[in-house]
Amino acid sequence: MDKAQWMASLTEVMPLTPLDFTAPQGYIPIIFGFPFQGSPEDAISHLERRLARALYQWPCLAGQFIAGGRGVSPKLIYSRSVLTNLDVFPVEVFDAQTLLRPTFPWTFEQLKEEHGPAIAMDKDILCLLPPIVPGPGEGCHPVTLRVNFIEGGILLGLSLHHGIMDGAGVAQFLEYLGGSAQTVNLDFMTDYNFDASHDPTPNPSAPLPAATCKILAIPASRISSLRKEVLELLRASLDENAFVSTTDIVCALTWIFITRARSSRLEPNQVSHFAAAVNIRNKLEDGMEPPMGTDYLGNAFIRVLANSTVGELTGDTDAPVSESDLVMLVADAAYRIRTAIQTLDDPAQVRRHIAIAGAAEHPPSVDLAVRRAIDRGVAGVDASSWIGLGADVNFRIPGTGNGGKPAFVRRAYSPFPGAMSLMPRSGGTRGDANWEIWLALREDDMERLMGQEEMGRFLC
C-alpha cells in the first residue's frame, strides 16, 4: 500500500473542538533519559509493541492530522480497518539509531551529572519530526517515537501533535504507553490582543538577540519554606483563607527573577503578563459542549494572564532585595497568578472562552492574539506545566533499571525568549524532588538572571 492508497483509506474523522483549532499547531517533543545496559534489540521490540498497543487503543492517533488554513479547520482522519500507521510507514512513525561522537558528544553519565542540560536536547537529532511543516490541507503523523542509543543509556524522543492533545492528554497517553494505565465574542477577551498591527513574531529581516535555554533546579525544601512564609503574610494581610499553591510560588519566583534580569531595558510602569495554561476538564458543567471528562485526550486548556508592572515585580530597584522583601514580592505575584487562574472557576467564563475559539473565522488568530498579549520576547512570560508528563511512568524497557522510570525528562531545546516550563517531577507537586524550571531567555538576560544574588539563595 503506497501513501496515496493509505490516505484514501482514512475515511473516518475524529471530531476536533474549537480548543483544538486554537491550540498551538505544532509538535510537543519530550525526551526521556534512561540508564541502559541491556540488549538494543529487546528494547526496540518492547517499545514498538507498546506504541502499537497505544495506537490500537486510540486508532485516531494512527491516522493523519490535516493542517488547517484560513477559513479551513484542521481535522484528524483515520481508519479502523488499517491496523496502524506503524505497520504502513514504520520509518516515519518509529525508528531507532545509535548516536556516536561527534554527532552527539555526551555519554549518559555526563547527561545525568549535568541534570539533563537543555543544550543537549536537540529535537532535530533526538526526535522523529517531519522535515517540513505541513501546509494547509497537508498531513502529518499525530505521534512519532525515536529511540536513541548513546553510551550508557537511552534517550527516548516522543513527539505528539499539540493540535489534538494537550499536556493532560499527553500524560494519559504516557501512562498507557508505559503499560500502567487501563483501557481508556472577541470584545470579551480583553486580555487577548487582536490588533494585527502588533506582531510579536520576530521580523526575519531584523537581527535577533542571541537566545539560550537553561534548566534551573531549586530544592523542594526551599520552595516549601517560602510558601509557608507567603501564606502567613497573605492570611495576615488579606484573608485568613487566602491560598496559593506550591506551583504558584515557583512560577511567581521565576517571574520575578526574569523581570529583574530584564529590568535595565524596561520601564518601571511597563506591564508584564504571566500566562498560565489551565486544565479545564474539572471545570466544565454537566451538559456543556463539548463534553470533556477527566479522561479526555484532546485539548482542554485555556490560557489566563496575570498582570503586574515591572516596578511591582522588582520592588522598584535593581539592587539585591532582602529575604523579607522578596517574600512580599513573591506573595503579590503568586496571588496575582492564583487570582487569574480562579477566574475559570466561573463556568460562564469557561463557556465564553470556548465560544471565542469556536467563533474565530481563522482559529490560529486566537493563539496569535494570546501571544501578542503576552509579548514574551519583551516583558512577558509564557508558562506551561509539564509536571505530570512521565517522571513516574514505568516504561518497562528491558535493561534500563531504576524501576523502569526515566532518570530525567526534558523538553527539546528551543530558545524562544520568555518561554518557561516546569519540568516533569517525581511525585508531581508533592515529595522531595527538586523543582526544575526550563527557561528560555536572551543570552544577556540569562547572564544577568544567573548573576542575581537572590537567585543564588535558591538554586541547588
Notes on the structure:
With 460 residues, the protein is of the alpha+beta class. It has 16 helices and 15 strands. It has a six-stranded mixed β-sheet with strand order 9-15-14-12-10-11, with helices on both faces. The longest helix has 20 residues, at 323-342. It is globular, with a radius of gyration of 22 Å. The chain starts with a helix and ends with a helix. This is Trichothecene 3-O-acetyltransferase.
Blueprint (SSEs and pairs):
Layout: H1 3-9, E1 12-14, H2 18-21, E2 27-35, H3 40-57, E3 64-66, E4 75-78, H4 85-88, H5 90-93, E5 94-98, H6 108-113, H7 123-126, E6 139-140, E7 143-150, E8 153-161, H8 167-178, E9 211-218, H9 220-237, H10 246-262, E10 271-279, E11 301-309, H11 310-314, H12 323-342, H13 347-359, H14 364-374, E12 381-385, E13 408-411, E14 419-422, E15 435-442, H15 443-450, H16 453-458
Parallel strand pairs: 5-7, 10-12, 12-14
Antiparallel strand pairs: 1-4, 2-8, 2-13, 3-4, 3-6, 7-8, 9-15, 10-11, 14-15
Helix pairs in contact: 3-8, 9-12, 10-12, 10-15
Protein name: Trichothecene 3-O-acetyltransferase
GO molecular function: acyltransferase activity, transferring groups other than amino-acyl groups
Keywords: Transferase
